[in-house]
Amino acid sequence: MASLAEIRARIAAQENKSNNKGNGAQSDNAIYPHWNMDEGTTAAIRFLPDGDPKNDFFWVERQIIKLPFNGVKGDTNVKQVVVQVPCVEMYGDNCPVLAEVRPWYKDESLKEMANKYWKKRSYVFQGFVRQSPLGDDKVPANPIRRFIISPQIIPIIKAGLMDPEILEIPTHFTRGLDFNIKKTSKGGYADYSTSNWARRETALTDAEQAAIEAHGLFKLTDFLPKKPSEAELRVIKEMFEASVEGRPYDTEKWGAYYRPFGIEAPAGATANKHTAPTETSAPATAPVAESSAPWSEDETESTSSVTIPKANVSSDKAQDILAMIRARQNKSA
């Protein structure tokens, strides 16, 4: 387990690096849905270390790209669907989708379109729920829950870790700190900016320590999407181009790889079958850096087949984007 000093050094290094640049599991009720809290309520949670000792932090970052389609080919009853795919920048590789999307931000008329296809970040933690305002929350047999934390909350968590008055890492079993998730609203969106670290250290209870001994700690990377193979990356690129062009999702072509929620794989499919990546109850997040658009807690990453608003981009503009993509492909061939 990394020390608090080591974590602070890593955070500082990451922040400096950022500034220098210029700015598969089923739902088992283990995920605590804090986004379902009522406005004005607070949940107290206690984060725990990652089960992977190689991770200096007690969280992992997840990056997802959402590809909207105008229905499903051959099914007139489905109007619009969304397919979620992993962004391989999460694994330190170059993402073929973001390679195309980044230049769009230089064109004011394409920024809204770029935001739609930009990667959505969230952060996976684990720990105990020590105080919950959710009356219908059912604690699973293993009380060590997983938390999907948004980019709005993560700076508050990091800022607390950099506070010199915090003397011990908050995940310490006997001298740790609870984190209070406080839900309010701002501009019609859920707001968590008043969330904070507790100021008083508390030890884990006997029951909590017994749960750790009985169940062990999760390895958080187990809850990230599987890294796509070269074949899967080609499928992702093909789906992206089809999505931009406004074509429907083609189950026969892509169903063995990545599918909208609720869509079955085609008969005889032998490729790895993917649906929505990993966690099924996580809130959507907003694009980073290039966009400051608010993210909505009401939209969840499990709602892959919900109706989504069409981008305010003309058919001609979509064709222009596809022409640009194909021209680049021909040039590199």
Structure summary, number of beta strands: 9
Helix percentage range = 25-40%
CATH topology-level fold name: Replication Fork Single-Stranded DNA Binding Protein
Structural class computed from helices and strand pairing: alpha+beta
**Whole-number tally of structural domains:** 1
CATH superfamily annotation: Replication Fork Single-Stranded Dna Binding Protein
N-to-C SSE string, H for helix and E for strand: HEEEHHEEHEEEEHHHH
Major sheet: 7 strands, antiparallel
> What is the end-to-end distance?
47 Å
Count of alpha/pi helices: 8
In the CATH hierarchy, what is the architecture at level 2?
A: Alpha-Beta Complex
CA radius of gyration: 21 Å
CATH class, named Alpha Beta
Mean pLDDT: 82
Q: Quick one: overall form?
A: globular
| Strand content range | 15-25%
Unreliable parts:
20-26, 276-315
Keywords for this structure?
single chain, Replication Fork Single-Stranded DNA Binding Protein, seven-stranded antiparallel beta sheet, two-stranded antiparallel sheet
Task: Compile the SSE list and pairings.
Elements (H helix, E strand, L loop, with lengths): L3 H17 L21 E6 L12 E10 L11 E6 L9 H6 L9 H7 L2 E12 L13 E5 L4 H8 L17 E4 L1 E3 L2 E3 L4 E2 L8 H10 L14 H16 L5 H4 L60 H18 L1
Antiparallel strand pairs: 1-4, 1-6, 2-3, 2-4, 4-5, 6-9, 7-8
Task: Describe what is shown at a glance.
The chain is an alpha+beta fold and 333 residues long. It has 8 helices and 9 strands. The radius of gyration is 21 Å and the shape is globular.
